[in-house]
Specification:
The protein contains 13 helices and five strands. It is mostly helical. A three-stranded antiparallel sheet has the order 1-5-4, with no helix packed on it. A hairpin with a 2-residue loop joins strand 4 and strand 5. Helix 3 packs parallel to helix 8 and helix 8 crosses helix 13. The radius of gyration is 21 Å and the shape is globular.
């Protein structure tokens, strides 16, 4: 008969702070409350669609499985717990950020496309030249589309690696950094709303339609004229022009992957291509990318300090600097 004993739930470098579950729960509650207040202030709601039902069921299932696997005994159970936690948190943060961008886009601040274009010109970047080059090469369009959509692939690789290797603290720090970057981006977005260079600079029929198309201008104008009253979670569109969250994500992914030799260079290469694809596929000015990268640097600097602050506050059950979970004795 085996006797339970306690060991660290995940080996981690001593320099990696651990974000406790109570802190995550409080941050989630605060985030959901903030999004609800934004929706109420803008007179918006969430449409009762199949997408809402799917997200709700997913959330319930994640909570139930997280509770069942809260103290895993076997390695497989621990990996499952960390995978479910990581993927669910990433999806929820992404969903809340996308929803929050709608009421924020409905504000009255004038669009700043001319100012962003002027900065691009000062930097000797001409969006139209970049677009025309992409539009003239079908193979580049295929590469760009694939790279742009990889914003959801890289975190899956990182979360999967952290779960498989028992590096829960690093997984939570990565997710927290992504979360902080999203909050900073959304805080800045109302100050720099824009329709994007495709809607502003290109005139006439388009030889190539980017993934983001003209959604930024169309949805922002519809929100400002109160033509949209409810948000369909199955039809969410990216509305944030500056700062570019694709650019912020790319920097966070690259920096996180650099601590993982097996993933370092593949993820760096993939996300550099994603950065290059963002001006056209995301219809972004170069200024958007630079500001997004600055947001990432700020989040990377702030988040470890914030997590260490929560550690000093004594959140979570910790013994010897590690969160403890029961496993069976050998």
């Amino acid at each position: 008969m085996t006797r339970p004993r306690f060991v660290p739930s995940s080996p981690r470098p001593s320099s990696t702070p651990f974000l406790s579950s109570p802190c995550i729960a409080m941050a989630l509650i605060a985030s959901v409350a903030a999004v609800c207040l934004l929706l109420l202030s803008a007179g918006l709601g969430v449409a009762a669609t199949p997408a809402l039902a799917i997200f709700t069921l997913w959330g319930i299932a994640a909570l139930v499985l997280g509770f069942i696997l809260r103290a895993p005994i076997r390695r497989g159970a621990r990996i499952a717990r960390d995978l479910i936690e990581g993927v669910s948190l990433f999806a929820l943060v992404s969903l809340l950020g996308a929803i929050a961008s709608y009421p924020l886009a409905a504000g009255k601040h004038p669009l700043v496309d001319s100012e962003l274009e002027h900065v691009d010109t000062d930097l000797h970047f001409h969006w139209l030249n970049w677009y025309e080059w992409i539009a003239g090469h079908a193979w580049l369009q295929a590469v760009e589309r694939t790279a742009y959509l990889s914003i959801f692939v890289t975190p899956a690789l990182l979360i999967g690696y952290f779960a498989a290797t028992g590096r829960r603290a690093e997984s939570r720090l990565f997710l927290a950094t992504f979360w902080v970057a999203a909050v900073i981006t959304l805080a800045l977005f109302p100050l720099f709303p824009a329709a994007g260079p495709f809607a502003t600079l290109w005139h006439g029929s388009a030889p190539y339609m980017p993934l983001s198309a003209l959604y930024q201008e169309e949805v922002i104008q519809a929100l400002r004229h109160h033509l949209i009253r409810s948000i369909d979670l199955g039809q969410l569109h990216g509305l944030v022009c500056a700062p570019s969250f694709h650019a912020a994500s790319a920097v966070i992914y690259i920096v996180t992957a650099f601590r993982i030799p097996a993933l370092r260079w593949p993820i760096a290469a993939l996300n550099i291509v994603m950065l290059l694809a963002t001006p056209v596929e995301g219809t972004h000015y170069l200024t958007d990318l630079l500001s997004g990268m600055a947001v990432a640097c700020l989040a990377l600097a702030l988040t470890p300090a914030l997590v260490r602050w929560t550690e000093r506050g004594g959140a979570g059950w910790r013994i010897g600097g590690e969160t403890m979970t029961p496993v069976a004795a050998e």
